[in-house]
Design a protein that fits this description.
The complex is a heterodimer of chains A (about 110) and B (about 120). Chain A is an all-beta fold and about 110 residues long. Chain A has no helices and 9 strands. In chain B, a hairpin with a 4-residue loop joins strand 7 and strand 8. The chains are: A mainly beta (about 110), B mainly beta (about 120). At the A-B interface, strand 7 and strand 8 of A face strand 10 of B.
Amino acid sequence: QSALTQPPSVSGSLGRAVTISCTGTSSDVGSYNRVSWYQQPPGAAPKLMIYEVFNRPSWVSDRFSGSKSGNTASLTISGLQAEDEADYYCSSYTSSSTLIFGGGTRLTVL
Amino acid sequence: QVQLQESGPGLVKPSETLSLTCAVSGFSIGSDHYWGWIRQPPGKGLERVGSVSHNGRIYYNPSLESRVTISLDTSKNQFSLKLSSVTAADTAVYYCARGLSGHDPFDYWGQGTLVTVSS
């Protein structure tokens, strides 16, 4: 099973919004609402930010939102803050009863 | 507060078995949820190694299935990973984490431990 496709890097200005895409296939993202997003600051463990496409754990700011259209899921971060600078990974359940991750996206806050 | 802490050797020789333990506090692993291992080679992305449920249901990454064993020790509230016949390609930071289902999401993570495979 191939990894989900994410842009290697994105950037956005302080206070603005940025969207990170995660493209899969009809065998994973397109067929299941089992997409999660993780934030990983440099040298730290990943942190769950979004699960089941758009649900936020209690510790996540409402500046983070998730959505899905067809085979592509998206994570949008509004009101960018310096602390948002990190790597972001998406994951999806697949029709082979496995879990796959995206290659990761480095977010730079300008 | 749920906390997880990995422990084990940081250096393993090629062809030997990698063994790690994850100690859990703040939650009884035998009561609910899944308990899994995820790894990250240096400078690369995440890869799920496998997960085991509180009642013994197991999911392994198909690419690693022939070499992986994950088990629970409810008496010590910890779970373990064994990966046999390791090569340099198994060098990675290994994270333990709590899963809300058999595959995802993982809501609580350990800090990770680097395991290097080298002679």
